[in-house]
């Protein structure tokens, strides 16, 4: 457990170093799980300097996402997690407002293997996400996101957990 948190801290420092080379954005989200656990997430994002399949309809691009999440449970003590993920984005064309959809798969390290009635099996989890929203001129963004955490059956039990949240992203 301590080794995982140390590795996550090293990854966060490395990620922070890479953000100094590129412009970084900050994001804040609030949401809930199916077990009524409140989820508060603070993240840093770094956009990729690339886009693919650019047409008059839109383009594919992406960003690196590093985040800290606080899980505030009703029945059990709180939990904390650090995560890192590459996220692909399809951004529709637009002048001042650009709708988008996103998907990504990353990794996360939890401080505890129990979250309400969910037994995660290990501190190491995979983070799968899907979301959609609107990007505004000036770099601001609002959206809705669903994130699933699971250890992919590497250890038992593997209950996993999903969070559903609203998020806001702004340039730093």
From TrEMBL:
Q: Which reaction does it catalyse?
A: a 3-(acyloxy)acyl derivative of bacterial toxin + H2O = a 3-hydroxyacyl derivative of bacterial toxin + a fatty acid + H(+)
Q: Per the record's keyword annotation, is Membrane included, yes or no?
A: yes
Matching entries from InterPro entries are given as: Lipid-A_deacylase-rel (IPR018550), OMP/PagP_B-barrel (IPR011250)
Record carries keyword Hydrolase: yes
One Gene Ontology MF term? acyloxyacyl hydrolase activity
For the protein in the UniProt heading, the enzyme class is hydrolase
Where on the tree of life does the source sit, at the highest rank?
A: Bacteria
Show which residues constitute the signal peptide.
Answer: 1-23
Q: What is its EC number?
A: 3.1.1.77
**What membrane topology does this protein have?**
Multi-pass membrane protein
What is one GO cellular-component annotation here? Answer: cell outer membrane
Q: Where found in the cell? A: Cell outer membrane
Q: Where is this site: Critical for activity?
A: 151
- Quote the Pfam families the UniProt record gives: PagL
List UniProt keywords, sorted A-Z. Cell outer membrane, Hydrolase, Membrane, Signal
Q: Which residues form the active site?
A: 148, 150, 162
Share what the entry says about its subunit structure, partners included. Answer: Homodimer.
The family this protein is said to belong to: Belongs to the PagL family.
> Any idea what job this protein has?
Has lipid A 3-O-deacylase activity. Hydrolyzes the ester bond at the 3 position of lipid A, a bioactive component of lipopolysaccharide (LPS), thereby releasing the primary fatty acyl moiety.
Instruction: Please give the name of this protein.
Output: Lipid A deacylase
